[in-house]
Design brief:
By secondary structure, this protein is an alpha+beta fold. The protein folds into three domains: 82 residues, no CATH class; 160 residues, Transferase(Phosphotransferase), domain 1 (Orthogonal Bundle); 138 residues, no CATH class. The protein contains 19 helices and twelve strands. The strands form four sheets. Strands 1, 2, 3, 4 and 6 form a five-stranded antiparallel β-sheet that branches. It has a three-stranded mixed β-sheet with strand order 5-9-8. A hairpin with a 3-residue loop joins strand 2 and strand 3. The longest helix is centred in the N-terminal third of the chain and has 28 residues. It is globular, with a radius of gyration of 23 Å. The N and C termini lie far apart (64 Å).
Length: 444
């Protein structure tokens, strides 16, 4: 039987107490670990990681919102945390503990003004999927099967206080005072607040799905503004499986390549044509079909890429531009990798490391086809770890990198990881957009 929640903590005190409770459990887990270690010196930390992951996830999943969103984001990074954590946190993508039926009805009525049983011909109070911001219910209206996404109560109001609780941990991880990290926290806060605005998501969903409608093998639901609100979003029900279930059925490599090509084309079109990307590429936001088509169901997190950032960031993925030192100097300064006050030694070390990373990331764009493997992903993480050992990166005097790179990088790492899970061998040539960037810098 699935555990449900009749109430979600919304006040600062309630949410802080929940996190403190998790901290107490973690302390107890460490005491158990050291007791067992005393008896058996070969006792490993695997059980400790599993217990800690379970206790942290239990607390975050009850809090929902930005607290659970952090777990969701961490689950996409396979090297940042032990596997016990990433496996457990991956549940936040679509299998968090849901609201109870009575709480669902109350939440819907408060936002829409009517009971879901009145609005729809049929409404299932048991949800089909529950994630960090809201959960999805199946409904029927005039013979159409619909998906009704209902936001957890109080989530929008808790974002700022949740992030305040997370800040000390993040500041300690990056070795920077809170003031220096402010621009990144501001970016995260803005995106999380946008995710709680279902009216904005409705608009973006309609705009992007229309613009991308001609991309082969990608499809979208129809949305229903007349049934939606700022906390409720109604769309067509799409059949399909999440990536893990899709792969468990052992599709042929031909089907996996077709899926991967659809996703690759979808993301490249958004970024290089629309300058806006679906910036939440975890597997819970896609529904995979047996024939190789992919349904896209969530546009809550969309990163609008400023044109100025686009023309100073993506040129570094083009070998012809990376070979032009004066342009490289200008680009790295503009996107805040280098600063005028840096010593020549620091500039040389950071430039070398950053260009090596961009050369690695740009491999798929430099040939007609590319095969994504787990080794390729491991190489990216290894290079990231190597860069992290540079003193000015490990203990920086100031934060480096534009705030706009946060969600762009997160998106590409997510896409690359899914490509590797699919062992994708697809067409990746960047002729259209790379030529545009070369021409831009030739004419300056």
């Amino acid at each position: 039987m699935i555990d449900t929640q009749d109430k979600i903590p919304t006040s600062k005190v309630e949410r802080a107490m929940k996190l403190m409770g998790a901290g107490a459990k973690i302390g107890g887990n460490y005491l158990k670990y050291y007791a067992k270690k005393t008896i058996n010196s070969d006792h490993t930390k695997e059980e400790l990681h599993e217990n800690n992951a379970a206790d942290i996830y239990q607390s975050l999943s009850q809090l929902k919102g930005s607290a659970l969103k952090v777990a969701q984001m961490l689950s996409m990074d396979k090297n940042l945390l032990p596997r016990a954590y990433t496996d457990k946190f991956a549940l936040s993508q679509y299998s968090a503990p849901p609201m109870s039926g009575p709480l669902v009805v109350r939440t819907f009525e408060k936002s829409v003004g009517k009971s879901p049983m009145t609005v729809f011909d049929r409404f299932e109070t048991n949800c089909t999927a529950a994630a960090s911001i809201g959960q999805v219910h199946k409904a029927e209206k005039d013979g159409k099967i619909l998906a009704v996404k209902i936001q957890y109560p109080g989530i929008g109001n808790s974002i700022q206080s949740d992030l305040k609780m997370v800040k000390p941990v993040a500041n300690a991880m990056f070795g920077l005072p809170e003031k220096e990290m402010q621009k990144y926290f501001q970016e995260v806060e803005e995106k999380l607040l946008e995710e709680t605005n279902y009216t904005l998501e409705l608009e973006r969903s309609q705009e992007i799905s229309l613009a991308c409608s001609a991309i082969p093998d990608i499809f979208f639901p129809k949305y229903y503004p007349e049934f939606s609100s700022s906390k409720v979003l109604v769309m067509d029900w799409l059949e399909g499986e999440h990536l893990k279930e899709f792969l468990q059925k052992n599709p042929t490599q031909e089907v996996k390549n077709r899926v991967a090509q659809a996703l690759w084309d979808f993301y490249n079109f958004q970024l290089h044509t629309q300058l806006a990307i679906h910036a939440d590429p975890h597997p819970g936001n896609f529904l995979f079909q047996p024939d190789g088509r992919v349904g896209v169901i969530d546009f809550g997190c969309v990163k609008v890429v400023p044109e100025d950032f686009y023309y100073h960031y993506f040129p570094l993925l083009v070998p012809e531009i990376r070979g032009n030192q004066p342009v490289v100097d200008q680009l790295l300064n503009h996107i805040e990798i280098l600063f005028p006050a840096d010593s020549s030694e620091v500039k040389a070390e950071l430039q070398k490391a950053f260009l090596e990373m961009t050369a690695l990331l740009s491999r798929p764009f430099e040939s007609e086809r590319f095969q994504f493997t787990n080794q390729f992903i491991d190489d990216i993480y290894a290079k990231g770890e190597e860069i992290y050992q540079i003193p000015e990166v490990k203990k920086p005097t100031q934060p480096r990198g534009s705030k706009h790179a946060l969600y762009v990088n997160r998106t590409y790492f997510g896409i690359y990881s899914m490509m590797a899970d699919l062992n994708a061998d697809i067409e990746t040539k960047s002729d259209l957009w790379s030529g545009k960037l070369v021409d831009y810098w030739k004419n300056r």
